[in-house]
Design brief:
By secondary structure, the protein is of the alpha/beta class. It has 17 helices and 18 strands. Strand 4, helix 3 and strand 5 form a beta-alpha-beta unit. The chain is globular, with a radius of gyration of 22 Å.
């Protein structure tokens, strides 16, 4: 049986949104001697089944962490001696009218007392405060999210090569980030009004405070608001690209959106390109201006120092006030109509746009949004300190198929691989899937731009391993 002192599991839900910052954290952990395994939720759960005394950084498999399979997973962690550092990839920005409920929905506080959950990490104090009277409050820590660390100027070198290639492809361009998955959803995600979306709210405890009818009203109101945004945003953008014929526009759909809608709808215009590849971060850095509609990328763009325009036509209607995105709605330059959008873009492109210094508005929701506060440093430090005081070594054997559970997982993984690479090939090609594959070249380039020569990255099956060069699994 092979042994390692420190093994950390990282499971990923959305590769475009998560993989690069998780790689970054894994590299920083590897520099301290950790071996890291990054993979899909099912792949990591399969590997974890036979592990002993490992560390898990992330969340459980469902968005709420409360399904029967999540509870079984957590119980297996307790049996296997796993210590979980709970970090949610969607942990900061929610609709104003249901903010506390949204936080409770994705943080399963009734499970915080589990021996497997060592710490719970929050993006900001605003989220931790929801649980200020919790009996396990000592486990709760505000760290921020490492995803936003990489937008700060000190890490611009990470993207220098990619930024150069993006500029060569699109020249000077305006980046348009959309977030309309509620009405333009990819097939491999539950729709906003589906039974699964309702169940997620119920799992999060909504029935303890609201009736079924009130939950439905909230769901359909949110869908209505996003639909209104969508049907305003798209024709407004079509007019904008025609009024700026000498300016290139790159549309960047949300990972949960169908790219083909934008490719088809804007095929009429020679100055519009649709690109959903990789992480949004280098696209932000390569752009002249970023336009969005209360999207998290607006906060990212502000951190990166790009002029940011927030187009929110619904702001003139009190009807949708409860559905504004708290933590994002007060960041960036607000435009509520076409005239102000046109003038703001013209000013920004001519270099006259001034920062409205609004990032501090996001600080309660994202602790590392400003200054020299870095989430990855705190997270790596806490994991390292915990493992330094822990006597047990991690075990990860060469996996046999030892149980019915493992056999079922093995078959499911093979079927998933077949589905992703064969059945969904057309959807992947069009950008109509949440799934995304990073090439070995992209992984090695990221490593080269981030780390010293003491760390290596390689693939084993469908998983990505990040470890010190001198380790037992090479």
């Amino acid at each position: 049986m092979s042994k390692q002192k420190k093994i950390v599991f990282h499971s990923i839900d959305s590769p475009r949104r998560e993989l690069e910052w998780r790689l970054f954290v894994a590299i920083k952990l590897a520099e301290k001697g950790f071996t890291n395994i990054i993979g899909s939720k099912t792949e990591i759960e399969y590997l974890h089944e036979s592990s002993r005394n490992c560390v898990f950084l992330g969340r459980l498999n469902s968005v709420t962490g409360r399904t029967k399979s999540d509870i079984r997973y957590l119980k297996r962690m307790e049996i296997n001696g796993t210590k979980m550092f709970y970090l949610h990839d969607e942990g900061g920005f929610y609709f104003r009218g249901e903010y506390d409920e949204a936080v409770k929905k994705i943080y399963p506080d009734e499970l915080f007392g589990s021996s497997a959950i060592h710490n719970v990490f929050f993006w900001g104090e605003k989220q931790r405060r929801v649980f200020e009277n919790h009996k396990n409050y000592s486990k709760l820590h505000v760290t921020g999210s490492p995803r936003f660390d990489l937008l700060k100027s000190g890490f611009s070198h990470i993207d220098s090569e990619y930024v150069k290639s993006i500029k060569e492809r699109y020249g000077k361009f305006v980046l348009v980030c959309t977030r309309f998955g509620a009405v333009n959803r990819v097939p491999d995600e539950p729709t906003t009004l589906s039974k699964r979306s309702f169940d997620i709210r119920v799992e999060g405890g909504a029935l303890k405070k609201f009736s079924k009818e009130e939950i439905f009203e909230t769901m359909f109101s949110a869908w209505e608001k996003i639909s209104y945004e969508f049907t305003s945003f798209v024709p407004t953008l079509a007019k904008l690209v025609q009024d700026f014929p000498d300016v290139n526009f790159v549309i960047r759909p949300h990972p949960a959106e169908r790219q083909s809608f934008y490719s088809d709808s804007f095929a009429h215009f020679n100055n519009v390109f649709v690109d959903k590849s990789g992480d949004v971060r280098p696209f932000i850095r390569a752009s002249e201006v970023v336009i969005h509609s209360e999207c998290t990328t607006g906060v990212e763009a502000e951190i990166a120092g790009r002029p940011t325009i927030k187009l929110c036509p619904w702001m003139n209607s009190e009807k949708y006030a409860a559905c504004s995105v708290e933590g994002v709605s007060n960041v960036g330059l607000l435009c509520c109509d076409y005239e102000s959008l046109y003038d703001s873009l013209q000013s920004a492109l001519s270099g006259q746009s001034q920062s409205n210094d609004s990032l501090h508005n996001a600080a309660p929701y994202l602790a590392n949004v400003m200054g020299n506060s870095f989430a990855f440093e705190r997270i790596v430090q806490m994991i390292d300190e915990f493992c330094g005081a822990r006597l047990e070594t991690s075990h990860l054997p060469i996996l046999p198929i030892r149980s019915r559970f493992q056999f079922i997982r093995y078959i499911k993984n093979k079927l998933r691989t077949f589905r992703d690479l064969v059945v969904n090939a057309a959807a992947l090609k069009k950008g109509d899937s949440k799934f995304y594959y990073y090439s070995d070249t992209e992984l090695q380039r990221f490593l080269k731009n981030v780390s010293t020569n003491d760390v290596k990255i390689w693939r084993k099956g469908r998983n990505i391993w990040v470890a010190p060069k001198r380790n037992l699994y090479s």
